[in-house]
Amino acid sequence: MRIGVIGCGKISSIYFKNLTQLTQTDVVRCADLDVERAKEAAARFGVPAAGTVDELLADPSVDLVVNLTIPAAHVEVGLAAVRAGKHVYGEKPLAITTASAGQLLTEATDAGVRVGSAPDTFLGAGLQTARALLDEGAIGTPLSGAVFMLSPGHEHWHPAPDFYYQPGGGPLFDMGPYYLTGLVSLLGPVAAVSAVATSGYATRRTPQGREIRVEVPTHVNAVLEFEGGATVTAVFSFDVPASTIPHGIELYGSDGTLVVDDPNNFGGPVLVGGRDVEWREESLRTPWSADSRGLGVAEMVEAIEAGRDHRASGALALHVLDIMESIHTAAERGARLPVASTCPRPAPFTGLA
Ligand SMILES: NC(=O)c1ccc[n+]([C@@H]2O[C@H](COP(=O)([O-])OP(=O)(O)OC[C@H]3O[C@@H](n4cnc5c(N)ncnc54)[C@H](O)[C@@H]3O)[C@@H](O)[C@H]2O)c1
């Protein structure tokens, strides 16, 4: 399928690298608000055409738009793609609000095109091996779990970090999608949340000394109640100078514990342990352990061509966004809140055709 990439910033390199190599995806054009940036990307990755967003959307040879713009532009660009009759797969989060994400999904359904969304790391070898082990009963019934994403914030490495501290950013909206999508793939949808959230600093500074105003919570403590009955403690922070707690997912079951490495990555290790047994590192069940960003696009293309549902779907991303929005609202109100949306647990993934 012919792909047009909109947004040629920091994350675009790995997409261009992978999408120009995968057989399912043929990158025919790219665009950015900064047209020079799009032209540079095209020259670097051998993309035949580059220019403005309007030119890309008017190009009848583009079937699917990969939207790699900043979160605040995801819906605007997604809607423009849908209105141009193109499928769209976007970076996370799907949108800044569930209301605007809902409009994108409704318009796409009406237009007969698909919406897909990152993260696709849940299709990687680590989380899919964990999924297979859970489904095989390796830890019995999942009862509870814990995830900790503790970091000092992205201004220390990102060239344009302001969006991480504006609505649509913060540790929950930026990093939460990896953990929450992984958890929904493992445990199914979330029914209710409780939370306490704080902002450790009103302003922050880039390494060059430029000030960034903080408009979102930067330390979020949440409890997730899954429809299936398990509860998971989740902490997302940009306010932690250093920590020894790893960025993984731990699930505690009736018969053992399952640990999978950082859901921001595609690989392992995946460990299973228990009361009276040594930790055992499991062999990964699929080859997708390197940085495979774009795998979700290729899987979506195969699904469209086969007429089946794709896994990194708009419905999954909307539910994850709704969980995040509900966490922020629960923290503001000091209340336990039901999560209004739900979604099917995505089917296991063993590889592309
Ligand atoms: N940087 C990372 O490591 C990383 C990792 C995973 C996911 N992401 C996600 O990828 C997305 C992009 O992040 P990034 O780090 O590449 O940001 P970035 O700021 O480096 O790049 C974004 C690009 O989009 C362009 N853009 C913004 N609004 C636009 C619009 N309306 N139309 C066309 N182009 C527009 C900008 O000019 C810029 O070139 C975000 O949603 C982010 O959450 C980033």
UniProtKB/TrEMBL annotation:
InterPro entries assigned to the protein according to its UniProt record, in alphabetical order: Gfo/Idh/MocA-like_OxRdtase_N (IPR000683), Gfo/Idh/MocA_oxidrdct_glycsds (IPR050463), GFO_IDH_MocA-like_dom (IPR055170), NAD(P)-bd_dom_sf (IPR036291)
Keywords: Oxidoreductase
Domain Gfo/Idh/MocA-like oxidoreductase N-terminal: 1-116
Domain GFO/IDH/MocA-like oxidoreductase: 128-258
Stretch forming the signal peptide: none
Example of a GO MF term: oxidoreductase activity
Protein name as annotated: Putative dehydrogenase
Lineage, highest ranks first: Bacteria, Bacillati, Actinomycetota, Actinomycetes, Micromonosporales
